[in-house]
Amino acid sequence: MRREASILHLDLDAFFAAVEQRDKPSLRGRPVVVGGVGGRGVVATASYEARAYGARSAMSTAEARRRCPAGTAFLGGRFAAYRRTSDVVMELLRELSPLVEPASLDEAYVDLGAGDHDLSVAGVTALGRALKERIADATGGVTGSVGIGTSKLMAKIGSDLDKPDGLVVVPPGAELDVLHPLPVTRLGGVGPATAERLHQIGVKTVADLAAKSLTDLVSLAGRAHGAGLYALARAEDDRPVVPDRGVKSVSHEETFERDLTDLVVLGREIDAMAARVGKRLRASAFSGRTVTLKLRRYDFTTLTRSQTLPQPTDDPRHIAATARRLLADAGTSGGLRLLGVGVSGLSVYAQGDLFSEDDGPEPADDADTAPAVPEEPEPPVPAESRWWPGQDVRHDEHGAGWVWGRGLGRVTVRFEGPTTDPGPVRTLRADDPGLHAADPPDWRPVVNGRAGSDA
DNA sequence: TCTGGGGTCCTAGGACCC
DNA sequence: TCTGGGGTCCTAGGACCC
What is the pTM of this model? Predict the structure, then answer.
């Protein structure tokens, strides 16, 4: 918790639905539901008009159809459009401070302390008001709710207090007055399971939570989570705003319209998912060592099976073959409603093709999935965004270096020499001239704290 | 026609190593 | 003669978030 209200949280209101209503005037003022439109779909976002009828995020689309009147628009989603609008907003936030942490397409934290701002309550209130206006202007009318406080916790609580189109500044010193009357479920990290256990020991509000001992909370929720709850109930929150959280895994999963049992059909599904995952890995110059198969059975029981390979891979055939083996071991009895393929344990090493970029176009891998609205093609990934030792690296006074990757957004990779203090992680932009310095030949990439492979 | 898809973090047990 | 202890890696699952 800081002495000044210098952390801002922005939450765009009913974001996906708002973009649809902006782009299609006929939808304005009408209930709009964005999400899965198939038999097993769920709601991603309901416009405020749809919420009036009881439609909610995470509700099955079937339930939302029952609740909403004729004339409600049910849309499959246009993620490229949402991303474009999100990018516009995030750029506005970066004008406020270099420390912007997107939490999703429609949410972000900003550390105003890293910018040049009047951090008085009056000052940040004016800043918040101006920001909301600029967002609406730049996006064609998308609104957002802003919270500003002395920590991420208070900023997020603030943005939630006056939705939609709200602005709440929690002045320094007022944290507990705001926090304690709220239900515990408003704290991040208190989901259905934790809420149920807390209710069983009589905890309904944050004030109730603050009355519990650390020992009680640790035994209820585990060491890390319990200690976290204990601190949050006291408004103790030092979490920094981190502009680039490294990507740790890449996955694709799909719920089928009908349960599947046929291993041949499921094998083809695995191939298609592995192709998508491999493509995304290559686009961001990542490879990973651990392949995970996720499956959900007919009765909704969910399990994962994983295998760690000796070398990292981004090869769809390799990923698919591993996942197929895991599926054969796990079995398909009773039918599967969902399959997923993921790769984790990422490093920047791309095997095999480091020096042959032009290995032809990728095979079409998503002909089997026909989204309600076609996705726009992704921009081609420039060859120079791929990394290999000696290329595109910069160092600073700590002896650490970074590259910039594309495809998964900006990716920060740290390089460490054998005897070097790692130093803080920084981000470079694609057009940064420092990208073309050379690195010492014996340095190794370190991604997510784990050493990458020699290339 | 109940229950998406993309992630992150944590826990816990066993293997293995020193 | 008796039964260490710490650390890391791997696997699996659970809770949570947007």
Answer: 0.79
Taking C1' of C13 and every protein CA, the nearest residue is A303
pLDDT digits (tens, 9 = 90+) for A216-263: 999 999 999 999 999 999 999 999 999 999 999 999 999 999 999 999
Residues 6 or more apart from A332 whose CB is under 8 A from it? Answer: A260, A261, A262, A263, A266
Q: A254: Cβ under 7 Å from strand B?
A: yes
Residue A62, classed as helix, strand or coil, is helix
**CA atom of A59 to C1′ atom of B5, Å:** 14
Active site residues of A: 107
- What's the CATH class of domain A249-347? alpha beta
Fold of A383-437: Thrombin, subunit H (2.40.10)
Domain A1-173 homologous superfamily, CATH: Reverse transcriptase/Diguanylate cyclase domain (3.30.70.270)
Asked if the Cβ of residue A302 lies within 7 A of any atom of strand C, the reply is: yes
CA–C1' A197–C15 (A): 13
Q: Which of residues 324-363 of A touch strand B (CB under 7 A)?
A: 337-338, 340, 342, 344
Task: Classify domain A180-232 by CATH architecture.
Answer: Orthogonal Bundle (1.10)
Q: In chain A, what are the domain boundaries?
A: 1-173, 180-232, 249-347, 383-437
